[in-house]
Design brief:
Low-confidence stretches: 1-6, 15-24, 45-50, 68-72
Number of strands: 10
Order of helices and strands: HEEHEEEEEEEEH
Number of helices: 3
Distance between the termini: 61 Å
CATH class of the largest domain: Mainly Beta
Helix content: 25-40%
Strand order of the largest sheet: 3-4-5-8
């Protein structure tokens, strides 16, 4: 994803750096037979006039790329188990955020029929998480109600301590039952302040005017002031 973001930024920079053109301008003139003739042409736009909007758009694009790259807890994420057979079913399990960190964790389960890959309704799924370094297990229901994407069953819960854990899912459906287990490592989360949307929103509000002043408005005002002073200094 990050590589794609960089490619789009470089591509946009090339477009914004190209010489701009005005839309077609209509002009009229008299031909040798005293008839009015309309012609259309495009005239180049001064790079000084076009550069501030281009750089502002580039700054907004870079900022948007940073914002959408921030981690978020949602259905999906890292695949932990893919197409594991349970009776007539296949189970695929995802965890997020990526990587797993202390705080809120989402475990999503995609339950399908093996024959036609149809989504299985009315399944009962129970999640058990156990610390591998010792400690008590915790159980959580995995339900459609907790899933943002209703193709999934999901459980959302909190992990307070970093370390190694085992997650086991017990699945029961009309045509079969079984379980699947896998181990995960949970890292200590960085400060939640740096992952909050309101902080990045505040950064955007303060950064965009600053970038406009540095790359566009400030330089244009300086050129205007200099040209004004030069005219005043003429005899």
């Amino acid at each position: 994803m990050q590589g794609n973001h960089r490619q789009w930024i470089f591509r946009l920079w090339g477009l914004l750096s190209a010489p701009g053109q005005n839309p077609l301008c209509r002009t009229t003139k008299q031909n040798p037979h005293n008839q009015t003739v309309e012609t259309f042409s495009s005239s180049p736009v001064s790079s000084d006039r076009m550069q501030p909007p281009r750089r502002l758009i580039l700054a907004l694009t870079v900022l948007f790329t940073i914002l959408i790259s921030q981690p978020a807890v949602a259905n999906g994420g890292q695949v932990r188990v893919a197409n594991h057979p349970i009776g007539q079913y296949e189970v695929t399990v995802f965890t997020s955020p990526v990587p797993l960190q202390t705080g809120t964790v989402d475990v999503s389960v995609l339950l399908q029929r093996r024959e036609d890959k149809a989504i299985v309704e009315n399944a009962e799924i129970i999640l058990t998480i156990t610390p591998l370094n010792g400690g008590s297990s915790q159980k959580y229901p995995v339900t459609r109600e907790q899933a943002t994407n209703k193709l999934y069953y999901a459980a959302e819960f909190s992990i307070d301590q970093p370390g190694a854990y085992r997650i086991e899912l017990a699945v029961r459906a009309p045509e079969g039952a079984g379980s699947v287990a896998f181990d995960v490592t949970v890292e200590r989360a960085t400060s939640s302040l740096w992952r909050s949307w309101w902080l990045w929103g505040a950064v955007a509000v303060t950064t965009i005017p600053l970038l406009w002043w540095l790359f566009g408005g400030g330089s244009r005002n300086t050129r205007t002031t200099s040209s004004t002073q030069a005219r005043k200094g003429r005899p």
